[in-house]
Amino acid sequence: ISDQHYDQGRELAEALLPFLSDPTPACVAELAIEVVKNMARHDCLRGVVVEGGLIPALVSVCRGAGARAKVAEESARALGNIALDEAYELQIVERGGTQALLHLLSADNLSSSVADAAYEALANLIDCAAARHILAAKGGIKVSRTTLELICRACRALALASCDREQLIEFRRF
Predict the structure, then answer these.
(1) Which is nearest to 37 in space by CA: 73, 68, 2?
(2) pTM
(3) Which end of the chain is more exposed for a tag (fewer CB within 10 A), N or C?
(4) DSSP code of 139?
(5) What's the pLDDT score for residue 37?
């Protein structure tokens, strides 16, 4: 990507920032977050999202999403996409991303799509020692049997990627 296109991408990311705040109507926030999520999927644009200052906004959205399930899901997916690049994992953790994702998982009315997105984002952060430390301090992730299958699929995928199994989250029998 050229410097000019990179700068244009960063300007777009910065322009989306105000649309991620609470007073924004849900439909507008959903569209803005979807653009951010899709930008973060691409290696060449991930840095644009980070430099545009969107990590704190996405973390904030995850913490305050409440009944806005689609907004919470897309925010978690965007954080997960950013975490695909190890260079940005620590920034997510330092800005409270791990706690925000755990907050989503603790919601009383947790939808399966939000849970999937949060688990996937946490799986992308598991290589970061700071994220593992936070998870350990919180006692790991407590899951229901319905979400255990998703986690097992993620663990299998990590194992296939030659991941050290000792780094994976420890599960206890229910």
Answers:
(1) 73
(2) 0.77
(3) C
(4) T
(5) 94
Q: How far apart are CA 75 and CA 142, in angstroms?
A: 21
Whether 13 and 51 have beta carbons less than 8 Å apart is answered as yes
How far apart are the C-alpha atoms of 16 and 7, rounded to whole Å? 14
> Which residue blocks in 69-128 are alpha helix, DSSP H?
69-82, 86-94, 97-105, 112-125
Average pLDDT in the chain: 81
Cβ atoms within 10 Å, residue 153: 14
Length of the chain: 174
CA distances from 78 to 34, 36, 37 (A): 8, 7, 4
pLDDT tens track for 96-135:
999 999 888 888 778 888 888 998 999 898 888 888 888 7
CA-CA-CA-CA dihedral for 162, 81, 11, 58, to nearest 10 = -130
Location of structure tokens 């290589």: 127
171 has pLDDT over 50: no
